[in-house]
């Protein structure tokens, strides 16, 4: 819309709310605290309208609609990917948006109504009463290197020998980074002396493939990239620290939850997959 029309609408909103919603400065406008609150609530209302139209479409044209899922990397491969593969066979009209990120960013996206639910962890500082949580299990971690790495020729490899190489880790404060640091401390070992910090899995794999660096990644991801029959990559797992794992993750949704019919259907499939895996593992 034109600037005059936008200014007129903003003025009407300020009159309706009885408080300033923005302040002007040389480079544009900045929302006030009240404006930020109104914008967030309005965004949620628009998502609800989108969901309503999706539900109407389901009633008139069969199973369809948009499902927005967030996930950390390991559960994304182990749970979300096979669920999507299966449900696309019976409900091909369902569309998916998948956000793969760290748990803190996924939690923010959930609160902001950008995703319907996610598989990850609830970061410190988030209100547990605002979400629903279904614990799933721990996430194993593997240390990976490039094919033909010198450490792959070592027999009875010890974790201390890995510390002579560069490590590719999440930035400080990341959950996997803290897990690795805690594991080394409990093993009586120092932290890696040379660290390359990145939260990008793609960059991590590229660095490992092209250098002698070592990186901790989710075991499910390591298995995928180390399997020559699947991706034929140059990534190999080290036979060391095989009991390293990130704390329990969960299936997390908003409370109260208002999902469209397609999201409810996908959520039910994910819950079934989680329950089946728990039965098979004896948990």
Description:
The chain is 45% helix and 23% strand. The radius of gyration is 23 Å and the shape is globular. It is α/β, with parallel strands linked by helices and 283 residues long. Strands 3, 4, 5, 6, 9, 10 and 11 form a seven-stranded mixed beta sheet that branches. Strands 1-2 form a two-stranded antiparallel sheet. The chain folds into two domains: 42-137 and 248-281, Periplasmic binding protein-like II (D-Maltodextrin-Binding Protein, domain 2); 139-246, 3-Layer(aba) Sandwich (D-Maltodextrin-Binding Protein, domain 2), CATH 3.40.190.290. It has helices spanning 3-17, 33-61, 73-90, 103-111, 159-162, 175-186, 201-210, 219-226, 261-281, and strands at residues 22-25, 28-31, 65-71, 94-100, 117-120, 131-146, 167-169, 195-197, 215-218, 235-237, 245-254. α3 crosses α9 (261-281). It has nine helices and eleven strands. The chain starts with a helix and ends with a helix.
List the main descriptive attributes of the protein structure presented here:
D-Maltodextrin-Binding Protein, domain 2, two-stranded antiparallel sheet, alpha/beta, 283 residues, 2 domains, seven-stranded mixed beta sheet, single chain, 9 helices, 23% strand
Determine the number of helices (DSSP H or I, runs of at least 4 residues): 9
CATH architecture descriptor text of the largest domain? 3-Layer(aba) Sandwich
> Which value, in Å, is the CA radius of gyration?
23 Å
* SS-derived structural category: alpha/beta
Largest sheet: 7 strands, mixed
Percent helix: 40-55%
How many DSSP E strands? Answer: 11
How many domains? Answer: 2
By CATH's scheme, which homologous superfamily of the largest domain applies?
Periplasmic binding protein-like II
GO cellular component, one term: cytosol
GO molecular function: DNA binding; DNA-binding transcription factor activity
InterPro entries: HTH-type_LysR_regulators, LysR_HTH_N, LysR_subst-bd, WH-like_DNA-bd_sf, WH_DNA-bd_sf
Protein name: DNA-binding transcriptional regulator, LysR family
